[in-house]
Amino acid sequence: MAGGNLLFWMQARQYGTIPTQGPVVQASFSIAADYQRPSKTRPYLQRKPWDWGYGANLTTIAGATNQVLLP
To answer: CA–CA separation, 27 vs 36, rounded Å?
Structure first.
C-alpha cells in the first residue's frame, strides 16, 4: 500500500472485488457445475474434451463502505 491506498495494478481487472481503502473483511462464495457429466445415474453420457457449465460468484466486503457484488 502506498500512503494507505491500494496500488492501481493490484486492483486492476478485479471487477470491483478488491477494495481501495482498508481495513476490510472480505468473503467470496462460488458455486459452479458442469452441464453434462457422466455419473452413476447417467452413465450413458460421454466425457467430452470441451463442454460448458454454469456458475455464480458472490463477494461481500465489510469496511468503510459495505458492498455485496456479483462480479
So the answer is: 29
Own/partner contacts of 11-18, CB < 8 Å, gap of 24 or more, are 14/71, 15/69, 15/71, 16/67, 16/69, 16/71, 17/59, 17/61, 17/69, 17/71
By residue count, the chain amounts to 71
Q: What is the pLDDT of residues 35-55, one digit of tens each?
A: 777 777 877 777 777 778 899
- For the chain, residues with pLDDT lower than 70 are 1-16, 20
Which alpha helices (H) appear in 1-71, and where do they start and end? 8-11
Q: How far apart are CA 29 and CA 56, in angstroms?
A: 8
